[in-house]
């Protein structure tokens, strides 16, 4: 725990230093802000790439081992059903909270945002064109498992791993046991690497924060104060709902879980990447007492299907853009939008700025100018901090809840 606390303190210090350094450059050397941001952002890039390096092998080995060890196909089906019920319920609740609060708070009606050149959104507009059910299916089913590994397509790796794990579970111990043992050793070796990589986290946090503040300065907080205030208020409501449900399921151990995952939450907030904390989250959930088979099965699925913060943001941002342009949407249209977002957002965890791509596609579908995404691009980084942290919380709660329902949540924890 002492090592954990040291790392947590180092991350907080890096966060404060990043804001201070970025602010200093922005105020004193504005002409150097862009090259400075480009260079210091490399610290964040190094950390993210180190984490991305181990995600594919970790997801594959832990998931295959988890399923193969279950051996009972009924258990796999039971755990999978409970997980999907949680994911669908949590997604609908998140989308509905976003929809309800953006209609109540109406940030688009009271905020005076500068109308920006849509050129800044060009890349996203291109990414969203051709979004179809065919693309969705292609994104789920891997054409080549090696391609999925090379591009870190988590959902495709999950699909292959589940099929391979079930096949191993049905082979019989004589054939399956050596393979399962090998993958188990590899998985724990990768988890050992996590400890080394996490010490790069403070540098990654410092680089990411300093780059944003140096480029945008503190003014960006003032210009978008209302939008940020309303979004984080909505996020707070979602946290209350998630924590309340978590408390009803795991009781007082909720506070121990929050203590365990404080580092992953802070890293996700600082780096705007829930992917960056996946390996650390696996480790902490096992230490918390979640069954390793359940963790290795539920968590990779959660990263594709259970993005609560991103879900809430999608409805909030879509209706906000409609409000900015004075487009009134009926309750029926908004409910339809909610259901469309529920379907189209699944399996986009590996897509860069996935939430924005889905928002653009949805706006086009409902007659809202997709160029409106340019209005929220400058502060998307700050919103992404909140939604990434919420995604991590949602997945930690989902894994703990399913472990509890399966009667496999160790009351003591403390070990892998």
TrEMBL record:
<feature type="transmembrane region" description="Helical">
    <location>
        <begin position="319"/>
        <end position="344"/>
    </location>
</feature>
<dbReference type="InterPro" id="IPR036458">
    <property type="entry name" value="Na:dicarbo_symporter_sf"/>
</dbReference>
<dbReference type="GO" id="GO:0005886">
    <property type="term" value="C:plasma membrane"/>
</dbReference>
<feature type="transmembrane region" description="Helical">
    <location>
        <begin position="83"/>
        <end position="105"/>
    </location>
</feature>
<keyword id="KW-1133">Transmembrane helix</keyword>
<feature type="transmembrane region" description="Helical">
    <location>
        <begin position="226"/>
        <end position="250"/>
    </location>
</feature>
<dbReference type="Pfam" id="PF00375">
    <property type="entry name" value="SDF"/>
</dbReference>
<keyword id="KW-1003">Cell membrane</keyword>
<feature type="transmembrane region" description="Helical">
    <location>
        <begin position="356"/>
        <end position="379"/>
    </location>
</feature>
<keyword id="KW-0769">Symport</keyword>
<keyword id="KW-0813">Transport</keyword>
<feature type="transmembrane region" description="Helical">
    <location>
        <begin position="154"/>
        <end position="172"/>
    </location>
</feature>
<dbReference type="GO" id="GO:0015293">
    <property type="term" value="F:symporter activity"/>
</dbReference>
<dbReference type="InterPro" id="IPR001991">
    <property type="entry name" value="Na-dicarboxylate_symporter"/>
</dbReference>
<feature type="transmembrane region" description="Helical">
    <location>
        <begin position="7"/>
        <end position="27"/>
    </location>
</feature>
<feature type="transmembrane region" description="Helical">
    <location>
        <begin position="47"/>
        <end position="71"/>
    </location>
</feature>
<keyword id="KW-0472">Membrane</keyword>
<keyword id="KW-0812">Transmembrane</keyword>
<protein>
    <submittedName>
        <fullName>Na+/H+-dicarboxylate symporter</fullName>
    </submittedName>
</protein>
<feature type="transmembrane region" description="Helical">
    <location>
        <begin position="193"/>
        <end position="214"/>
    </location>
</feature>
<dbReference type="GO" id="GO:0006835">
    <property type="term" value="P:dicarboxylic acid transport"/>
</dbReference>
């Amino acid at each position: 725990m002492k090592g954990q606390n040291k790392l947590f303190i180092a991350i907080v210090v890096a966060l404060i230093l990043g804001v201070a350094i970025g602010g200093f450059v922005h105020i004193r050397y504005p002409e150097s802000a862009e090259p400075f941001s480009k260079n210091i952002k490399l610290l964040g890039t190094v950390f993210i790439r180190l984490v991305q390096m181990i995600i594919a092998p970790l997801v594959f080995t832990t998931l295959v081992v988890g399923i193969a060890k279950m051996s009972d196909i009924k258990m796999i089906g039971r755990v999978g059903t409970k997980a999907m019920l949680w994911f669908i319920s949590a997604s609908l609740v998140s989308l509905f909270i976003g929809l309800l609060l953006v209609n109540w708070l109406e940030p688009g009606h009271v905020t005076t945002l500068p109308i920006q050149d849509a050129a800044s959104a060009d890349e996203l507009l291109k990414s969203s064109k051709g979004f179809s059910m065919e693309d969705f299916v292609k994104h789920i089913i891997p054409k080549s498992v090696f391609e999925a590994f090379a591009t870190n397509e988590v959902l495709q790796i999950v699909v292959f791993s589940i099929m391979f794990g079930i096949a191993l579970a049905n082979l019989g111990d004589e054939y399956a046991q050596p393979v399962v043992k090998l993958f188990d050793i590899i998985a724990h070796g990768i988890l050992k690497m996590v400890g080394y990589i996490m010490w790069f986290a403070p540098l990654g946090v410092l680089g990411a924060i300093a780059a944003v503040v140096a480029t945008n300065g503190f003014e960006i907080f003032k210009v978008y104060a209302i939008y940020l205030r309303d979004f984080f208020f909505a996020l707070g409501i979602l946290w209350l709902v998630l924590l309340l449900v978590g408390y009803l399921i795991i009781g007082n151990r909720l506070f121990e879980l929050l203590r365990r995952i404080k580092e992953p939450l802070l890293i996700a907030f600082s780096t705007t990447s829930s992917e960056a904390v996946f390996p650390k989250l696996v480790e902490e959930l096992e230490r918390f007492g979640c069954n390793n088979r359940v963790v290795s099965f539920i968590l990779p699925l959660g990263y594709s299907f259970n993005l609560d913060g991103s879900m809430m943001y999608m409805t909030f941002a879509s209706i906000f853009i409609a409000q900015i342009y004075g487009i009134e949407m009926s309750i029926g249209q908004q409910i339809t939008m909610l259901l469309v977002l529920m379907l189209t957002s699944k399996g986009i965890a590996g897509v860069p700025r996935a939430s924005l791509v889905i928002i653009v596609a949805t706006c086009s579908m409902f007659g809202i100018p997709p160029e409106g995404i340019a209005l929220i691009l400058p502060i998307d980084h700050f919103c992404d901090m909140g939604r990434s942290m919420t995604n991590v919380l949602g997945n930690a709660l989902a894994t703990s809840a399913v472990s509890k329902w399966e009667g496999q949540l160790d009351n003591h924890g403390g070990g892998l």
